[in-house]
Amino acid sequence: MIPNKEFRLNPTSRLCLAALCATALVGCGSAGQAPSPSAAPVAIATTTPLGSIVSDITSCAGAKSTTLMKPGVDPHDFALASDQMAALTRAKLVVANGLGLEGGLATALKNVKADGGRVYEVAPDVFPLKYSDIEAAHAGETAAEHAAHTHGEFDPHVALDAGRMAQAAANIGKQLTEATGDATFTECGAKVEAQLKATDASVREKLAIIPPARRILITDHEAFNYFAKAYGFEIAGVVIPGGATDAEPSSADIAKLVATVKAEKVPAVFSNIAVSPKMVQAVAQEAGTDVRVVPLFVDSVGAPGSGAETYSSMMLANADAIAGALT
């Protein structure tokens, strides 16, 4: 048993102990409270390419943003968690791609609008392409065959054109200014726009080494229409026609695509790094030639350490991969 002793503190020790207790009380008092409004993200982006751009704009303005999806997530299949829905209602602005890319978020975004929240969809404001107007018949299919594929009127995959995303950055900055009353966001949107125009120029420079006869793309799904139009490529075939990634091509579709690979002497077919490459691999194998399967970042930036963690680095990585495969 420890004997009872009187314990005395000198004046300096008493002051230190009082300060320590006050700090502890403040910490305990705030542990169960929600963060202050100023600490909450001013904007929430849906996809990682948009998240990268929005983060650049908000960081420039001294604010915070967050992204719903993680790197490597296919936006066509994304489902919202309950805590994410609550976060959407607190943000000053929700930035979405739109045109059906985030199919699983349609109801949630509609509810945010109904509750008085602001949702800005990027794709409709950057001159979206109508599927009916897109050239290249996708491995020789007729207009009726192409129209039969399941997708909306417009192609939502605008992120693979850095020029369009530069315009999107300027638009997002203006939308943030409207949502917050802070003109700094418009200024920062213009700065990010200039940066993405430089990215666009770098992509063009990297792709310039590909000769015209080899500017032919065969991809796993129909996501490269904007890329092809912006950077001078022809889409000779698509393994899974339509904008979705979860469809299954028929054996006739595969056979037609294999014939295209052989006829065009295509050295590589390109797959979305975020989805299974098995269908693309099957096409390459059945072609019976030295056809490479080259993964690209399509609807998502890369994971940490991939070298494609931001929108700009994603586009540059894709340009390097395509140039390396086709030259």
From TrEMBL:
Where does the protein end up? Cell envelope
Broad class of where this protein is predominantly found: other
The UniProt keyword set, sorted, is: Metal-binding, Signal, Transport
Provide the Gene Ontology terms for cellular component. cell envelope
The keyword Transmembrane helix is annotated on this UniProt entry: no
One GO biological process term is:
cell adhesion
Q: Which InterPro entries match?
A: AdhesinB, Bact_metal-bind_prot9, Lipoprotein_PsaA-like, ZnuA-like
The record's annotation in SUPFAM superfamilies points to: Helical backbone' metal receptor
- Keyword Transport in annotation: yes
Taxonomically, the superkingdom here is Bacteria
The entry lists its GO molecular-function terms as: metal ion binding
Entry similarity comment: Belongs to the bacterial solute-binding protein 9 family.
Name of this protein: Zinc ABC transporter substrate-binding protein
| Originating species | Propioniciclava tarda
